[in-house]
Amino acid sequence: MSNTLNLPENRFFDPTPTHRQMAMELYQEIAALPLVCPHGHVDPRLFAEEDATFGTPAELLLIPDHYIFRMLYSQGIPLESLGVPRVDGGEVETDHRKIWQLFAEHFYLFRGTPTGIWLAHELHDVFDVREKLTGETAQAIYDQIEAQLARPEFRPRALFERFNIEVLCTTDAATDSLADHQAIRNSGWKGNIRPTFRPDAVVNLDTPNWKDNIDALSAAAGIDIDSYPRYIQALEQRRAFFKQMGAVSTDHAAVSAYTAELSTGESEMIFQRALRGETTVDDARRFTAHMIMESARMSIDDGLVMQFHAGSVRDYNTLIDQRFGANKGADIPERGEFTHNLRPLLNKYGNDTRLTLIVFTLDESTYARELAPLAGHFPAMRLGPAWWFHDSLNGMTRYRDQVMETAGLYNTVGFNDDTRAFPSIPARHDLARRVDANWVAGLVARGIVDREDASEMVNDCAYRLAKRAYNLGE
Amino acid sequence: MSNTLNLPENRFFDPTPTHRQMAMELYQEIAALPLVCPHGHVDPRLFAEEDATFGTPAELLLIPDHYIFRMLYSQGIPLESLGVPRVDGGEVETDHRKIWQLFAEHFYLFRGTPTGIWLAHELHDVFDVREKLTGETAQAIYDQIEAQLARPEFRPRALFERFNIEVLCTTDAATDSLADHQAIRNSGWKGNIRPTFRPDAVVNLDTPNWKDNIDALSAAAGIDIDSYPRYIQALEQRRAFFKQMGAVSTDHAAVSAYTAELSTGESEMIFQRALRGETTVDDARRFTAHMIMESARMSIDDGLVMQFHAGSVRDYNTLIDQRFGANKGADIPERGEFTHNLRPLLNKYGNDTRLTLIVFTLDESTYARELAPLAGHFPAMRLGPAWWFHDSLNGMTRYRDQVMETAGLYNTVGFNDDTRAFPSIPARHDLARRVDANWVAGLVARGIVDREDASEMVNDCAYRLAKRAYNLGE
Amino acid sequence: MSNTLNLPENRFFDPTPTHRQMAMELYQEIAALPLVCPHGHVDPRLFAEEDATFGTPAELLLIPDHYIFRMLYSQGIPLESLGVPRVDGGEVETDHRKIWQLFAEHFYLFRGTPTGIWLAHELHDVFDVREKLTGETAQAIYDQIEAQLARPEFRPRALFERFNIEVLCTTDAATDSLADHQAIRNSGWKGNIRPTFRPDAVVNLDTPNWKDNIDALSAAAGIDIDSYPRYIQALEQRRAFFKQMGAVSTDHAAVSAYTAELSTGESEMIFQRALRGETTVDDARRFTAHMIMESARMSIDDGLVMQFHAGSVRDYNTLIDQRFGANKGADIPERGEFTHNLRPLLNKYGNDTRLTLIVFTLDESTYARELAPLAGHFPAMRLGPAWWFHDSLNGMTRYRDQVMETAGLYNTVGFNDDTRAFPSIPARHDLARRVDANWVAGLVARGIVDREDASEMVNDCAYRLAKRAYNLGE
After folding, report:
1. Which residue of A has its CA nearest to C115?
2. Inter-axis angle of helices B228-244 and B281-302, to 10 degrees?
């Protein structure tokens, strides 16, 4: 019984020799390109101070990663035993070696999953681990990671440089002071880290504590938000500030992709009801639909690229939400609809070449049916990469197969790592580059595109499309 | 023109040599494992008497198999000419050789279908047929099967042993006396055959003759069911009896996966209306939704695994239903929804590790979008295998590709043959084992899992997951 | 940097050697079969006069082809600059060399798309082009095509013969005089060109100018349509005329697949409201649903095969519709539903073997879930091939993989090229034949069907199924 952790050089490529060889050849063209990371959830604080560290191996790799603990939870392992903090401050496991041991004993659950693939890559390439993670090897591997993390080469800024990250965009609340971003700039460190404007908490009226968020927005913008026009003015002011701090895009989430414009009177009426704490379900639904359109209008004005993520029912499991809070691996996708929902937005702004609207979905049945036809027609629309549960080997392959024939490669925007776990960034890009190299190699092997076009396509997938779509330079 | 019936040893494996070789290697590890059959529709009467027989070849293989006659009917062949009995006792073909001839002449319709694959396997492996079934060979093959069926080695119990079935669960109405199961036990024969509790006919208020079923339930439980509490008591009593007779699970079917809890008052009111024959469409819908939840509560109490099949519009073709009755190949799937429909159930019972809820779907668009994320989070939830129309080579492959990356292998429950035709059991398991071996081999060939993990995975798929999920021993 | 346009002989086949070799072998059996074209949009006028020509290369290949200009438009290229005529007669580019240049410079957008594949095939096989289309080669290629088009061998009738088209069905409004078809017949030319009866513009009450269309129908039928019975009579009369002119089928489009029968009173009431210009949204919806059923009834009477295309939201982009008119690449699919929508129709007529109802969808999630189970049961129902956005390499492959196991090959109807661009016909059939050969070769390579059955199946796919389904001779 072998315990060697081995990452085959030609992993994830089709086993047919001609296909595999072409995939390897194309992959080698792009493997070492810098990483462009236009969308993710890395905490900018990691880079604000030169001496920031990552904590213990469990703090770095497990406790904050809902991709990992959701799977353990699904097999009956309580989140408390994994050290996930409780909202009420109740007791949870604090022995990180014990947490790591429990995880290692169940690492077999991740066989064939992207989480398993990313983690193996991180252990191997970032931490030089050469044994498979199991109950037996758990403590030795913990020792090894712990020792590495103590070295200066494993501080966030050092890894940022080692990972060859050309640009990293974080995701920041509309009310954020961007103090960490400011600190990074002030420090003189050269890492290109940019904020992204995410206004969900002040736009979606059904956000818990929405009124507090509006107060924070008032404070941040220096505008007393007592009316809809002032609210819009505050948002525009914040966008301008984010842009000045380097932001290239905004990010918007909604359960449904519904868009619809309200009259000025209606906007004001709904907004006033919300200020008084009298929001109805229908108010929230209509106001979000309106604000998506309004955000597109602002993007046309200020040039920020607009990202729109629809389809996730957040914090679905009430027990987990109450005990551990939001974002604990219990977000569940629902059926999506874009054709009718986006029509008001696309009819009003979709023909405007000043707008770049990047749409993401969790419902793959909309790829070929709705999204590819829309992106293959409207100049303002682009398709975001395979998202979240579909950011995986099969998920990315299905995306390519279902989207490309109708939308073409050039109405897509390259790869987003969308990561929370900073050290997983190279693993995620490497997987995407391998999948893309393999996909294009398949087109060559079947005589669909020639070798010359294939080179262009893999370079576009790995690097150029993301830079172009997010205005990060040609 | 060759008429040889030939089953290649490496059939269904990917033709790429490295992939195929690995698939063969993995298949050989599991090909001879005993068959675990936790869900199916074999008539227990076949095993109640030592001397039971299967009838003619047409009675064994065609007349009761809606997979077969639906395809013939779709091409304009009247069910009467295939010997399918009419509700009104009207004339149908009784010459089983003529029926067989008609079938053989149209056997080309099954090219590339799972029915075609299973039947070829049965003919070859069970009945030693070595010629392709065509109009020319029809009668000779009939002779051969008829001769085999006359031998004692072809009685049901003998085939059960020859097939190496470790355990076979049947599906039985809540009102069933389980007399056949009792007879099997009394006979001293060692075959492990267990009932499954299926209460649809007393739970779904829109079942034709629901009130008669309630009367039968009263009689079976020895409880006069005149109120909702007594109804619940009768169901619990029957479950206890089934459990005592060896049942390990219950089975529930509904068109929609809708779940919702009624108050005690509402339950009683709807139940009383039903007793008076005044059920409304909405009553039936809400009562089923409530009883799905109530059944989960009972499972937590008595430990029976709960199976839930949603999405089939039964007996869609009125003409066929009126002329030939239910289950005649005219059940048509409808669009499914699980995220919102299961939320009440999962929020109430989904975090309880005493419950095992196995969910099946006919809408593949819910695999990656809804079911895999749900099963990858809730401890109580597992995913049933690719069901019915999707219990096929491509169907099982799509299931693996769309489910595994998010739910992992260990939130699935292995294979269910779901068979009506007893002699097709080995063919169905063999197909599933080949598909699984080929799927895991693909993971090895692409460097996603290593050889050691691959062994574990194929053994889990073929044998261990089913035993574990259905509490049939480790 | 190579500019050679090269079409590999074994293109589109799986690169695994055994699979590819079998695909090549099967393809060679069918590559030269005559083309059967039962559904498309070629203008019959092209064949009405012996000396008809195609115009400039841009007029032939770009300006009328929304598959091409939608992609260019999606990347910000105004339709005016592509010479697409404006409704208001406003200025658009008239220099066809300039249009061609712009197209050539953006031809990379079509990498990996069916449009790219078809166009490469046309350039290579029809016009003998041997260089890739780029900005540099644009004018030389224009010269070459222009020169070819000037030759008598490139007139429509000559190409029809060179393409080996056995039969070509056009699509014609219910009110069409079929004068071009008459002219073809009168000319003595032997090309087998047939009309298809498409009544959408007189059936869908929300058609712009519906009343004008009814007036045209009155005139064409010689019946004063002032009541619903006379309307039905006029339609029946027109169908009889089309049939006499060679039509074998009718074609019906609707956004939804909803079917439902109205009472005679309701039909008359809705029809009278429509005559008065007082149609409601609900009227239109219900009348279409009713007329789909009524058309099936007529098909049973007159034997015309009924085609039903559902799921496209036409002219979705209002700006484009107002500026350039209908059919400008802005038709977007919506989610489909067939199980409940077709039930009234199938319950009334689906068991009648005199009816052939061919159903097309743009929602692939309905293939395995709804359409294959329906076609695998009802004698009257067949599935049309992968349609529109799915008439592509991946689209056709997904269709086969998702439909065949449940419906079987023999409930499908072969290939429809559905073309607008006449010279793309051979390219489209060749792609379909290659995909089918490759699909069947995969079944052989995996031991699912034998070599003998494979021959039958590819010949069915390429030629026989279409002839049989459309009553074009065995």
Report:
1. A405
2. 40
How many CA atoms, within 13 angstroms, populate the side-chain half-sphere of residue C33? 23
Q: Do C390 and A368 touch (CB under 8 A)?
A: yes
The alpha carbons of chain A give a radius of gyration, in whole angstroms, of 23
Place of tokens 């954020």: A176
Closest to C198 (Cα-Cα) out of C305, C289, C334: C305
Q: Is the pTM of the predicted complex or chain greater than 0.95?
A: yes
Task: Assign residue A212 the CATH number of its domain.
Answer: 3.20.20.140
Q: Nearest CB to B377: which of A13, A329, A392?
A: A329
Q: Do C11 and A446 touch (CB under 8 A)?
A: yes
CB contact under 8 A, B317 and C378: yes
Does residue B474 surpass a pLDDT of 80?
A: no
Based on the fold, state whether residues C349 and C438 are members of the same structural domain.
yes
Domain carrying residue C408: 17-52+155-469
Instruction: Determine, yes or no, domain membership for B4.
Output: no
Residues A26-83 have pLDDT tens digits of 999 999 999 999 999 999 999 999 999 999 999 999 998 999 999 999 999 999 999 9
Q: Are strands B197-198 and A312-313 parallel, antiparallel or unpaired?
A: unpaired
Q: How many residues does chain B have?
A: 474
Structure tokens at C205: 């009450």
C105-157 pLDDT, tens digit per residue, is 999 999 999 999 999 999 999 999 999 999 999 999 999 999 999 999 999 99
Strand partners, C358: C307, C382
Residues C96 and C215 in one domain: no
The shortest CB-CB distance from A15 to any of B19, B373, B452 is to B19
B166, B278: one domain:
yes
Q: What is the dihedral of CA C169, C175, C179, C180, to 10 degrees?
A: -30
Residue with tokens 């449940």: C406
C16 near B CB under 8 A: yes
Residue B88 CB partners (closer than 8 Å, separation 6+)? B323
Instruction: For residue C342, list chain B residues with Cβ-Cβ distance below 8 A.
Output: none
In a mutational test of the B interface, the residue from C354, C400, C444, C446 whose CB has the highest number of chain B CBs within 10 Å is C446
pLDDT of residue B420: 86
Look at residue C2 and tell me whether its pLDDT is greater than 70: no
DSSP state of C411: G
User: Amino acid letter at B461?
Assistant: C
Asked whether the beta carbons of residue B340 and residue A318 sit closer than 8 angstroms, the reply is no
Nearest CB to B448; choose among A117, A364, A395: A117
Q: How far is the C-alpha of A219 from the C-alpha of A238, rounded, in Å?
A: 11
Cα separation, B367 vs B224, whole angstroms: 43
Contacts of A378 in chain C (CB under 8 A): 74, 317
What CATH number does the domain containing C110 carry? 1.10.2020.10
Residue that the structure tokens 């484009």 belong to: C320
Q: Do residue A453 and residue C329 have CB atoms under 8 angstroms apart?
A: no
DSSP one-letter code for A136: T
Q: How far apart are CA C45 and CA C77, in angstroms?
A: 31
| Residue contact B110–C443, C-beta within 8 A | no
Q: Cα–Cα distance between C183 and C191 in angstroms, integer?
A: 12
CA angle C246, C252, C257 (to 5 degrees): 150
Q: Is there a contact between A466 and A36 (Cβ–Cβ < 8 Å)?
A: yes
